[in-house]
Design brief:
Length: 685
């Protein structure tokens, strides 16, 4: 149960004053669902304005405060802006420009012939000076020049004014909370108390406040992960010892790499213990994780138990099932597929098989852990693409039966060492750092978008030669309607060019059946070109597809690009990846794309990516979604995470049940950052 004192902070933002239904979506987009989210919606930056006597004193791009007298209104046809032409003391004219239907409001605020104080950013539009949507319009100077104003990340449908007012409501709900930071550390760093830190972080660029808030988040994360690990250690699993008889019968068309052998041995060692395994298998796309998973599961089956493989999507579950079935033919091992879409008799018979133990291995989506599914003896779970779930959710999933199954989590996201700690805590890691032999380097090229014609030509030649290709469009968030529209438009163009039958489209908003049908046509080779939006949907193995085009490549993270590209490096054929880039790239963006050309080592790319995005970037982690944090920046993570990690360990060593004074405070912290699965484990274990 969440401590009562936190209830006001967890009230829904929908219930706040001035939040109508039309604001639900923009708030949701920013993740501002609870009052505490508002308090934690920290400004990107602050503006400080300069008071100027007239426009000659100001420069374009500057934030100013100035007295202006409106002398004309200009409305424009259609969706054009409403303009208020106004003059300064020296007679210079500036346009106060309002988009949307703001004419009425502007007229009321800015009556003709009456002088007003205006605060805003001076811009130039053609020959004309303008201030778009002034931040303030006031009859007095009202200290406008003194205000240091926070600028918040926005989403469509919100203004700085509206959001700022909501944030203030969020801040007003803050009460003091008990201190969870170790007293010596707090004193050494001269960090403010929690509430003061949040208030200060909205006032100005207050470094100690920001540091403290970041540290809180890192500490919460470290604590939760450590609780998971402790709880796991305290649980009982089944020691599994295989005799190798099934593994010997596997018909593999290749010998294992050294890294695969080592990883399997590490898993084998863990499985032999009574404490449930909690191991991460990290290996680049194409490094051969599937075989490691299979051999691991076979150890369980040899020991007389059942194993399950959990995939993040239906498509991937099907693909895994097909691959594994093929490898298992001739072993006598029973394998089944169970997804949310299986209904009726087929489903019943699988459920029976799992209950009576006649099915040894089940592959599926979340459906395999639903309440209706019971196992005779599930002792080993493999989770593919761990980062889609999160450790907490995963642990909940695996709490089936009296004994905790051993768990192997597999991820293809090569993340830097520091972030591994942040994502997985002290989980044991096996690394597939050696690629199967015979892989060819992927010929990667960066191409300007202006050369679209040439690119389509190249795809055309490739398809004519009997090949298939992927065409990836960016989709930063599932809800981004612009991106979706762009992908649909590109699909329509390519379909017109290559013909209805040859092109399929797959994106997150399609119904699963439609998506699967399209995927299957592509996998069978009936469709030649797959236009897709997200990484996961092209997580499918189609060896004949060895050309990939990635549009607006600069918008993807390096790790993501790397993962996408890995889809075409699979066979022994030569593969090509064309990274289409827009104009006006920053130096960093250029460097990132050229790194993609230079190396195919996922771990190196991850480290370089971190270095390139490194210091000072406030928004980096939030937007890329590659860390579990919303406050801490990459730079702060690297610097403060080790401290938080050690502190968490000390606290848990002294007070593992979190019952002491600081322990209680730490519980509050865990709830605050929604890492309360850590607390639940305390009670359960
Ligand atoms: P991952 O899941 O790590 O991306 P997969 O397990 O799908 O990679 O393996 C990629 C491809 O490499 C598959 O076609 C697989 O059969 C093949 N493969 C795996 N291990 C080896 C090996 N030791 N030698 C040759 N090919 C291998
Ligand atoms: Mg895989």
């Amino acid at each position: 149960m969440r401590p009562d004192r936190l209830n006001p902070l967890f009230a829904e933002t929908a219930g706040l004053k001035g939040v109508g239904p039309q604001m639900a979506k923009p708030l949701d987009k920013l993740g501002l669902l609870r009052v505490k989210d508002l308090a934690y919606h920290l400004p990107d930056r602050f503006v400080q304005r300069r008071v100027v006597a007239n426009l000659d004193e100001a420069t374009v791009g500057e934030n100013i405060v100035i007295a202006l007298t409106p002398n004309d209104y200009r409305s424009s046809a259609g969706r054009g802006p409403f303009r208020v032409l106004a003059a300064d003391a020296a007679g210079n004219v500036v346009s106060l420009t309002f988009f949307g239907r703001n004419g009425g409001w502007a007229k009321k605020q800015l009556p003709l012939g009456e002088t007003r104080w205006i605060a805003g950013r001076l811009d130039q539009y053609g020959q004309m000076l303008q201030i778009v949507h002034p931040d303030h319009v006031s009859e007095e100077t009202a200290g406008l020049g003194q205000i240091c104003e926070p600028i918040y990340p926005l989403s469509e449908g919100l203004t700085q004014g509206r959001l700022g007012a909501l944030v203030q409501q969020g801040l007003a709900a803050l009460t003091d909370l008990p201190e969870w930071i170790e007293p010596n550390l707090l004193e050494r760093e001269k960090w403010p108390a929690w509430r003061d830190a949040l208030l200060a972080a909205h006032e100005d660029e207050n470094k100690p406040a920001r540091e403290r808030l970041a540290y809180d988040e890192l500490l919460a994360n470290s604590l939760a992960l450590m609780l998971v690990k402790n709880a796991n250690r305290a649980q009982r699993g089944t020691p599994l010892q295989g005799d190798g008889r099934l593994r010997a019968k596997l018909s593999l068309p290749f010998g294992l790499t050294g890294a695969q052998k080592r990883s399997i041995a590490e898993v084998e060692g863990d499985l032999a213990q009574a404490a449930p395994m909690l191991r991460l298998l990290q290996g680049d796309v194409g490094s051969g994780k599937t075989v490691v998973a299979l051999e691991s599961m076979l150890i369980a089956v040899e020991a007389g138990a059942q194993a399950a493989l959990l995939a993040p999507t239906e498509i991937l579950a099907r693909q895994h099932h097909a691959t594994l079935s093929k490898m298992l033919s001739g072993t006598g091992v029973e394998i089944a597929l169970l997804t949310g879409r299986d209904k009726g008799k087929a489903r019943e018979s699988i459920l029976m098989g799992l209950m009576d133990g006649s099915i040894d291995i089940v592959v599926g989506t979340h459906a395999i852990f639903q309440d209706a599914v019971s196992y005779k003896h599930l002792a080993m779970v493999v989770i593919d693409e761990q980062h889609r779930f999160g450790v907490g959710q995963r642990l909940m999933l695996t709490q089936k039966g009296k004994r905790t199954p051993h768990c192997l989590a597999m991820t293809a996201t090569p993340i830097p060492r520091t972030l591994t700690l942040a994502q997985y805590g002290e989980m044991e890691v096996s690394k597939l750092d050696e690629m199967p032999p015979g892989r060819q380097a992927i010929d990667t090229r960066v191409v300007a978008i202006e050369r679209m014609g040439d690119v389509v030509e190249a795809v055309s030649r490739h398809l004519a030669g009997g090949g298939q290709a992927y065409w990836v469009c960016p989709m930063v968030r599932e809800s981004e309607t612009d991106d979706l529209a762009a992908a649909e438009a590109r699909y329509a163009e390519l379909r017109d060019h290559f013909g209805e039958q040859d092109v399929v489209l797959v994106h997150g908003q399609l119904r699963p059946e439609v998506k699967d049908a399209a995927m299957e046509r592509f996998a069978r080779g009936e469709a030649k070109l797959l236009v897709a939006t997200t990484v996961i949907e092209v997580g499918v193995d189609v060896p004949n597809s060895n050309l990939m085009v990635i549009e607006q490549a600069e918008r993807f993270g390096l790790a993501q690009l790397h993962q996408l590209r890995g889809r075409v490096g699979r066979g022994t054929e030569k593969s090509t990846c064309l990274l289409l880039r827009g104009g006006g790239l920053s130096e960093t963006a250029r460097e990132r794309l050229s790194l993609m050309r230079e190396t195919q080592d996922g771990f190196r790319l991850a480290e370089e990516d971190l270095r390139l995005r490194g210091g000072g970037e406030l928004l980096g982690t939030k937007q890329s979604g590659d860390t579990p944090f919303r406050v801490a920046t990459l730079e702060q993570i690297q610097r403060l995470l080790p401290v938080a990690h050690d502190d968490a360990r000390l606290l848990i060593e002294r007070d593992g049940g979190l019952t002491g004074e600081r322990g209680e405070a730490a519980r509050v912290l865990l709830y605050l950052f929604e890492r309360d699965w850590g607390v639940q484990l305390l009670r359960g274990g």
